[in-house]
Structures are given as structure tokens and as C-alpha cells.
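W.,

You were right to be curious about this one. When I first looked at the sequence I had no strong expectations either way, so I just let the prediction run and decided to look at it fresh. Below is the sequence, 579 residues in total, followed by the output.
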Amino acid sequence: MNDKKIMLGNEAIARGVYEAGVKVSSAYPGTPSTEISEFLAGYSEVYTEWAPNEKVAVEVAMGASIAGVRSLSCMKHVGLNVASDPLYTFSYTGVGGGSVIIVADDPGLASSQNEQDTRMIARSAHVPLLEPSDSMEAKEFVKFAYELSEKYDTPVILRTTTKLSHSQGVVELADRVDIPVKPYERQMRKYVMMPASAIGRHVYVEDRENRMQEDCSNFPVNKMEINNTDIGFITSGIPYQYVKEACPDASVLKLGIINPLPKKLIQEFASKVKTLYVFEELEPVMQEQIESWGIKVKGKELFTKQGEYSAKMLKKVIYGNDDCIYAKAEVPNRPPILCPGCPHRSVFSVLNKMKIHAAGDIGCYTLGAVAPLNVIDTTICMGASISTLHGMEKACGKDFIKNWVAVIGDSTFLHTGVNSLINMVYNKATGTVIILDNRTTGMTGHQHHAATGKTLKGEDTYAINLADLCKSVGVSRVIEVNAFDIVELEKVIKESVSGDVLTVVIAKAPCALLKGQKFPYKCVENADKCKKCGMCLKIGCPAITKTEDGKIKINQSMCNGCGLCASYCKFNAIEKVEK
């Protein structure tokens, strides 16, 4: 097969996984990595699943690898933090069948809480890391990663970024290779990481890295382009595209393997150019190592450690010219706001009315921190809302949290919130936890999870009952309530925060954008009854605007008919009517 197709970087990665003969993939959705698994689910030859979190995903991939097949785990960069426990030991055990961990970094914070650099984690874990620069390379680097994994007995990280994940390029397709299952062989010293075994495997890991250091200068994923030798760039990934755009005549060493760095190849390239730059986003991972070898380079003293790079940035530094090669498009500003009909808005409107603070979590509901809802006070990482609330109580006592709750989504609760809730039960907490159950993993594009009753491939499965789960870990007071019933919701929350019993409130209503979700109503304003009080505007629904005379107007193309605005209007100026 030599067909060509235009593919997103994530789609190309999935294609590479398929062509490499992978049989098992486990992942947790996280922008910008989510679509890899969604595309991969289209290949019947690969078993694909959503795991409850990234730690589980890597452990599943390890199990498949030990059993003798090629395996995959996928996540975004902060997900690698959750998976770090098995990752560091996976480096010691090595593989049976090849195993690759795809990690999507997010320079520029398009959808993340930090800009951590996976290249540094790969160095710390002693795991090789590859980084492609376009869709075609993304596919081919995946296949090469499996070759490295099996040749050097190691898991391999393939690092992508938001720009690569969501940009398109031409990809030449190939057939899937049939990789036979390796016969299982019991190897206690290799796979049982008790201290006596781990000591020997640490020696193996160092030897493996030394061998790769010697070999990687000849890897085909590295590419030296000698042009004008006055200026040379060492770069990798998407920044390579900016170098070629801004400085097309410069000499370039494009590295496909970032850990370990190909020392001999870098030394050779450095000897050929007069002025050498390292052009890398985020941390000076390559620059610091190259400088430690006595090679003079320019890098982070000229370029920022923050955000995405661009051709414009490079031109300004090299030529003192900040003219854009392409004019910047004027894009209408979209303020961060919950969608029309979002059930989270209803819960937050009640909390705002009650002047209650919320320890927040990772999800769409983080938008409850901004005006006009102004409810979320903290957002740290997946599952942290519950633990944060618990810490507040233990620090300042029960009275302090009488006007606090923890809010967490259903998918995030299953990810790492359950552990935090168990901790509250075990250590005799009395706080109020609100699970915002919208029946999906909303922020990353409506992926299924263990409580939706569907697998990644859309097959029916057992759906975890969140209320029963909470009761099973010892929560005596669990209350389920319709998220849009603001009267009942206020009553339940008031009783919960004033009591001395750990309470879980499950606010249930499906995401307004969920596939198949039908809205039989629309909300219609009656200008004659409107008193211009502004109560309906306090909920922050983008479908509601104010006219020049101060009365409200509902955009019918945006309204989902949830009726929240009508619930707050005391003058019946808003009605729910059937479509």
C-alpha cells in the first residue's frame, strides 16, 4: 500500500500504532492527546479502552507487554504525573513486547494547568524519547519507537505537542505488520521489582542508556541539513518548522531522539557552523546538556521558556525583524464561559446565591471561577478538590468549612476523586462533596467512562453507580438531586454544609452538548413583564443579552431550554415553551 492521505497529527499517530502491529491500547482522555485513542478505536485489530486514569493505562500496557504483545498507553503531559509510579519502574523492568507511551505536551497552555516538559521526565526516568515534527514523521516515529523498545528492552515515550496533535499533513500509508506474540517466560529478576531485583536492573538501565548514547547518532530519525554555515540550529518537533520558515537558508540539525541526545552527531554539526543556536520550546533540556559537553550555543538567554514558539519570534531574534510572514487573522474573542444549558451553571448559581466557596477540580466546571458565577476558589489537579476541602477542615476546624464545598465531575471523581473521598471517610471528615454528574468526560469532547455504560468502542457495559460507590466506601449520607432543581439543590446544600456528617451530593443532568441529548423546550422572554432586575443575567448564560432599553433578549439559536433563567425570574418574564 502506498496511498496518501491528509491527517491530523493525532490521526497519524493512531495510524502508526496500527501499522506497527500493536494489539492493546489503554488511555485516559486529555487534550491534546484524546483523538489518538478515538482514531485508534476505528481499527478492529487493536483492542482499545478508556482507563479510569493514566496510572491504570500504563499498568495495562505493561501487562500486555509482559504477556508478549506490542502495547500502547496515551495521555497528556499532566497525566504522566499520575502515571509516574509505574513509569519509573517500567524503565527498570523493560518490556516483553514493545511498549510506547504517547504524551502530549501543551506549550502555550491551550487547555492545561501548567506547561511541564515531558523531556525532563524522560531523562529522570531514564526512558528514551522521540519527537516528530509533522504528521508523516508522527506515524513513522511511532513505528520506530516500537523497534527501539524491543531492541533495547525499554518503554519509549513519543512526545507530541498541541500544535503537532492538531495540525494536518500528508501521510503515506503502509500495511499493518503482523507481530507474533512472544512466548511468556517467567523472569522474576526482570519483572518482580523488590529491592534485590531492582538493584541489578538499575545497572542494566545505565548500560542500556550508554549503548543508546553510542548508537543514536546513527538513528534515521535525526537529520542534518548543511546549508549556509554562518548560522546553525539544533531543534526538534514543531520548532523545526519555524526554523525552516524563518531561516530557510540556515544549516539545521533536526533531532528525532531527544533522550538520550546523539552526542557525536551534535559535536559533528557544531564543528561545521560558526554560530550555533538551540531552538526548543519550554525548558533548556537540549541546551544544558550540549553546553555541558563544552559546546558553545545560544538559546534560552534569547528565547523564552514560556509558551509556543513561532517563526516571527525567531526572525525578531536573528534578524531584528518582527514582521509576520503571514498576517495575523482577526478572530472574534470568545470569553471563557459555560455553554447554554450546562447543568454546572445551575449548581454554581445556587452556590453563588448562598455565598459558598468551592474547592474546584479539573473539568469544564473550572469556569465556575470566572464572572459572573465567581464560585471556584481553588483548582490544582485531578481529584484535588476533595483532598483540599479535607485539608481545610483539618487545618481550621469544622466551622471553617460551613461555607465551603468540593465540586468534582463524574469522570474526574472516578479518575482520582474516589481515593480522596476514602481519605475523608477514613479520617473522619465532615465536609460536603458535590459530584457534578453530567454523564460524560465533557472537557475533552464527550468520552465515555466507567459510569456511562459504554466502552471506548461504544459497546454496552456495566455502568458504575456513583451513589452506591460512595456508600460502599463508607459515606452514610449520599443524596441525588436534579441539577436544575434549584430549590431542592439549595435545600440539600444548606442542610449538608450546616451538618456534622460527611455528605456527597450528586447533581445529575446530562451535558447539553452530549450526542443524542434532546431539548423539547425553548425559553422565551416577555418584554412587557421584564422589570430589568437582572437576576437572569447573573447566571451568565451566553444566550441571554440585554437590549438597549435594559430589558433582556434570549437568542433562540443558542438557547437549549434548560429553564434556569426562568427559575430565577420572579416576574414570569421568561417562559419555557415547547418547540
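Here's what jumped out at me. The first helix runs from residue 9 to 19. And, maybe more interesting for your project: The two ends are 51 Å apart (CA to CA).

Coffee later to discuss?

I.
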